[in-house]
Design a protein that fits this description.
Oligomer: heterodimer
InterPro entries (chain A): AA_ABC_transptr_permease_3TM, ArtM/GltK/GlnP/TcyL/YhdX-like, MetI-like, MetI-like_sf
Structural class of chain B: alpha/beta
CATH topology of the largest domain in chain B: D-Maltodextrin-Binding Protein, domain 2
Strand content of chain A: 5-15%
Largest sheet of chain B: 6 strands, mixed
Main location (chain A): membrane
Shape of chain A: globular
Radius of gyration of chain A: 29 Å
Helix content of chain B: 25-40%
Shape of chain B: globular
Strand order of the largest sheet of chain A: 1-2-3-8
CATH architecture of the largest domain in chain B: 3-Layer(aba) Sandwich
Number of strands of chain A: 8
Distance between the termini of chain B: 47 Å
Helix content of chain A: 55-70%
Radius of gyration of chain B: 21 Å
Family (chain A): Belongs to the binding-protein-dependent transport system permease family. HisMQ subfamily.
Membrane topology (chain A): Multi-pass membrane protein
CATH class of the largest domain in chain B: Alpha Beta
Largest sheet of chain A: 4 strands, antiparallel
CATH topology of the domain at 83-154 and 262-391 in chain A: MetI-like fold
Organism (chain A): Ancylobacter aquaticus
Order of helices and strands of chain B: HHEEEHEHEHEEEEHEHEHEEHHHHH
Chain lengths: 396, 340
């Protein structure tokens, strides 16, 4: 080696092995090779051993006919569909619980969290009791409670509780009328979409106008009018193309209408109320992290209590709330796999349960299922992190 | 959780074990650990059910005891692993258990693509339906539109789908992970019908609040040959488990039971009995166990008929008559291969 590359400042010339940069890259490369080799040999070995024992391997089974029924399907599915389709049905059922559960948990969590800081003794106590009871009971226990306690209290389908003769509640779930789309229904759907688009546009315009001129418009009322008025107008013009199919008791069960199965209700309610207890604590800590001076400043500007909370406190509290909130969303999604305890057809019950048993391909199916949960969690975390960046305090 | 653990164990066992290395045979492993590890159900009266002291009883349990008796001369050298329907095959594939004796239906998929071998049929069964009497249903063909509770991870889900499809009927299936949950949901009125193997229905009915309010419909919608299962790859072990059942069947056919077996061993003239009880020929040798294996099974557990009557027979709460499970010369199809 020549002297050219050496530092001028008189540091002793040394072998490239001692260069920290070269060293770290080298070590990482070795680690990577070892990991890849281990992974490869593990897979190869497993394949050989499985083949030697004549245990079926590979992902070809996804194209085979599943041959079993599922009682809640968001996409068309029958016994003649494939295992691949059964997988999608299970995945959608998991997502349904996760999305509805997250929305409910967030609403309840914020209300209870704010309630814990209320000046009203009753509200404060109820919120505290809620948090302490729900977060300290195991979630599976709560799911079973909602399912078996509430289910056995419900009447059978023949004596079901009827709301206006349209909605029926029994131990078979909640049966609601199904909308039937006739000619021209497309226009109504378009009108709804257009109304939503216009409402968002109007809100933005009103907000920027207020910033420029200081004049305030009753956005909520105008938008509400828009959202109801436009579709209604479309309905009148097209002559009410959307009708409802009212469920009707025939034989054992209701025929027609949409059935919301009790397993879904029990699972969603249990997970939402359980997770809400944790979210409430996040919200409380977030609000308490905003210094009291902010409240005083807002009050002295003439903002009312609710306005102070909505415009000053919550936006600042969000930066503390969001990161643990993300964890709670992930927990709820993963806890939805407890569905198997009450027979809700989620991904684990349908795919890692029935499909696994029928095909016997445990390694492939468990790998796919784990991959799905990992992917769902990463997507949730990415979205929440992006949101976190938006609401984070911009420091000067 | 257990399923996940078993799956990891399976993945680990398959991934890490050297491909060609020949480990000790199953029999050697069982002898060196001193007991047979037997996979059973999580509680099905008549087949495998623990009592309040944790002692297991039932047809499937007694069969495992018979295997232990043949190997060790001691029917108590068995340890039981309760498994859900879903976990059972993974537990066997990964070597967690030596025998799966858990009212398991013999099907082509299970026999040919799971790396398993069925050793015989301990109980010929068929799937049936149970329903509340006040629904006033007398035939399974009147069940269109019904909600049906069943256990996931069994052949029943597919049979159910096939039956309703073949008869052009609609249904709603609610599948639970364990038997207990199925029974609770059915008892709570979540579903109109409970479906599983008819022997299972007889057992589950006893767990209901008012067993007499429910009837089992006459239709049998499937063939469910239930039997013990072992893992591929050890023919000696396969032979032992297979011949334990045959020995019990032959003993019943020859009139040898646990009460007269000592006398028969000393005084029997019938060469078939002598071969079975090990006083003539060396038939245990081929399996690597003692030549008195047949004697030990009958002495400690009894013949097939005794085992049946004790666990599921007409004098038990399950009240199941022999039916198909009677011996071949008594109107049934149970048939033991000859010892010679």
């Amino acid at each position: 080696m020549t002297d050219l590359a050496g530092p001028v400042g008189g540091r002793a010339k040394s072998s490239f092995i001692n260069d920290p940069k070269v060293r770290s890259i080298g070590l990482q490369l070795i680690a990577l090779v070892v990991v890849v080799f281990l992974g490869w040999s593990f897979t190869e070995n497993a394949r050989d051993n499985l083949a030697a024992q004549k245990i079926a391997t590979g992902f070809g089974f996804l194209d085979n006919t599943a041959g079993f029924g599922i009682n809640q399907t968001l996409i068309p599915y029958s016994e003649t569909s494939t295992y691949g389709r059964a997988f999608v049905v299970g995945l959608l059922n998991t997502l349904l619980v996760a999305v509805v559960g997250i929305i409910l948990a967030t609403i309840i969590g914020f209300l209870v969290g704010i309630g814990r800081l209320s000046k009203n003794f009753v509200v404060r106590t109820i919120s505290t009791v809620y948090v302490e009871v729900l977060r300290n009971l195991p979630p599976l226990f709560q799911i079973l409670f909602w399912y078996l306690a509430v289910l056995s209290a419900m009447p059978g389908p023949r004596n079901s509780i009827s709301l206006f003769g349209e909605v029926f509640i029994s131990n078979r779930g909640i049966i609601i009328p199904r909308p039937l789309f006739g000619d021209g229904a497309g226009i109504v759907v378009w009108a709804i979409g257009l109304a939503i688009f216009l409402a968002i546009l109007f809100r933005h315009w009103a907000a920027s106008r207020q910033e420029e001129t200081g004049r305030y418009l009753p956005v909520l009322r105008i938008n509400l009018g828009l959202l109801i008025g436009l579709p209604l107008l479309a309905m009148i013009v097209t002559g009410f193309p959307i009708t409802f199919e009212v469920p009707e008791l025939k034989g054992f069960n209701f025929v027609g209408g949409i059935q919301v199965i009790p397993e879904f209700v029990a699972l969603t309610v249990a997970l939402a109320t359980y997770t809400a207890a944790f979210i409430a604590e996040n919200v409380r800590s977030g609000i308490q992290s905003v210094s009291h001076g902010q409240t005083e400043a807002a009050h002295s500007l003439g903002l009312r209590h609710a306005q102070t909370l909505r415009l000053v406190i919550i936006p600042q509290a969000m930066r503390v709330i969001i990161p643990p909130l993300t964890s709670q969303y992930l927990n709820l999604t993963k806890n939805s796999s407890l569905a198997v305890g009450i027979g809700y057809p989620d991904l684990v019950a349908v795919f890692a349960g029935t499909a696994l048993n029928q095909t016997g391909q445990a390694i492939e199916i468990i790998a796919i299922t784990m991959g799905v949960y990992l992917l769902l969690s990463i997507i949730t975390a990415t979205v929440m992190n992006a949101y976190n960046k938006r609401v984070a305090l911009v420091e000067r | 959780m257990k399923r996940l653990l078993s799956t990891f164990a399976l993945a680990g066992a398959m991934g890490l074990s050297a491909f060609s290395a020949q480990a000790a045979t199953k029999l050697e492993q069982v002898k060196s650990k001193g007991f047979v590890q037997c996979g059973v159900s999580q509680g099905l009266p008549g087949f495998s059910n623990p009592n309040d002291k944790g002692e297991w009883s039932g047809l499937d349990v007694e069969f495992c005891r018979a295997v232990a008796a043949a190997i060790f001369g001691d029917p108590t050298k068995v340890k039981f692993t309760p498994l859900s329907a879903k976990d059972r095959f993974t537990a066997l594939q990964s070597g967690d258990i030596d025998i799966l004796s858990r009212n398991t239906t013999w099907t082509i998929t299970r026999d040919t693509s799971l790396g398993l071998n069925f050793t015989g049929v301990t109980y010929y069964d068929g799937q049936g339906f149970m329903i509340r009497k006040d629904k006033k249903v007398n035939s399974a063909l009147e069940l269109s539109g019904a909600s049906v509770c069943t256990q996931t991870g069994t052949t029943t889900e597919q049979n159910l789908a096939d039956y309703f499809r073949a008869n052009n009927m609609t249904y709603e299936v609610i599948a639970f992970a364990t038997n207990d949950e199925v029974v609770k949901a059915y008892d709570a009125g979540r579903c109109d019908v409970l479906t599983t193997d008819r022997s299972g229905l007889a057992g589950e009915r006893l767990k209901l609040t008012n067993p007499d309010d429910h009837i089992v419909l006459p239709e049998i919608i499937s063939k469910e040959p239930l039997g013990p299962v072992v893992a591929h790859g050890d023919d000696q072990w396969f032979d032992i488990v297979k011949w334990v059942l045959y020995a019990q069947l032959i003993a019943e056919e020859l009139g040898v039971d646990s009460k007269n077996v000592d006398e028969q061993q000393k005084t029997a003239i019938n060469p078939e009995i002598k071969r079975l009880l090990g006083t003539e020929g060396k038939y245990g040798e081929g399996m690597g166990i003692g030549n008195d294996w047949g004697y030990l099974i009958i002495k400690h557990v009894g013949n097939y008929g005794e085992m049946y009557d004790r666990t599921v027979g007409p004098d038990t709460p399950l009240k199941l008559s022999r039916g198909l499970n009677a011996l071949w010369n008594k109107g049934g199809i149970q048939y033991g291969m000859p010892v010679r």
